[in-house]
Write a structure and sequence with these properties.
single chain, mainly alpha, 9 helices, 79% helix, globular
Length: 237
């Protein structure tokens, strides 16, 4: 537990050094203000941008800078284990990305008077963050320079992140729902929309799949990219 706390403290020092915390707080405040002022805009749009786009980019950029500056893990590493490193890195990123959620919940509950299940909203938000934190990490691990990373961002946003926004605007036929469920963003979007509307408007099977697909992605990314990288890093150290 001590090593996990040490890694989290180290990560937050990096977040401060790289101005990641500053950016997250500023974006959260601006989005929350816009959410509270422009009532005609669906508040889920701001939620989607924060989870599907900002989370991916900030975590990818952070890991890329840490790799460049060789500051991924605190020095000396001592007896760090893979079972400590991965949970700690994910937890530090998760805590950081929860800042926007707090802003949005305050606005939606006390300004917009939205009446939805706060617990289900938080669970879905966290699930969405976990998968997109891992996507951000994986993009950095796949790409070895910033140009390839930028292309990967564009590709991911076009292929996956735009889908939930189109769904929110009712631009996607319901007949494509089961096909597009392979998008982690669309899966999380389905859950959010059902929670926000306060009734099960989607097929029960679709909601079940939307709950399972992100977990499958988490497992795939964890064992395909993240665990092998940190295992090798610890061996090198």
């Amino acid at each position: 537990m001590k090593n996990i706390i040490t890694i989290i403290n180290h990560d937050f020092k990096n977040f401060l050094t790289y101005r990641i915390i500053h950016m997250i707080v500023i974006i959260s405040a601006v989005f929350a203000l816009a959410m509270g002022i422009f009532h005609t805009i669906n508040p889920l749009i701001f939620v989607y941008i924060s989870i599907f786009i900002i989370t991916v980019i900030t975590n990818s950029v952070t890991l890329f800078i840490e790799k460049e500056e060789q500051s991924i893990l605190p020095i000396p590493i001592d007896t760090l284990k893979i079972t400590q490193v991965i949970p700690a890195k994910l937890l530090s990123s998760l805590i950081l990305q929860l800042i926007p959620m707090l802003f949005y919940l305050i606005i939606m509950k006390f300004i917009l008077n939205s009446n939805f299940s706060t617990l289900l909203f938080i669970i879905t938000y966290i699930l969405g963050l976990i998968i997109h934190i891992m996507v951000g990490f994986s993009i950095t691990l796949i790409c070895n320079n910033h140009v390839k990373m930028a292309l990967m961002y564009v590709g991911y946003i076009i292929l996956f992140s735009l889908i939930p926004f189109l769904s929110l605007m009712n631009l996607i036929p319901s007949s494509l729902s089961y096909l597009l469920i392979v998008s982690p963003g669309y899966s999380i979007g389905i859950l959010f929309e059902n929670i926000f509307l306060r009734y099960l408007y989607s097929d029960l099977l679709l909601v079940i799949l939307a709950s399972v697909v992100p977990i499958i992605y988490v497992i795939i990314l964890l064992f395909s990219f993240i665990k092998p990288y940190y295992t090798q890093l610890l061996k090198v150290k």
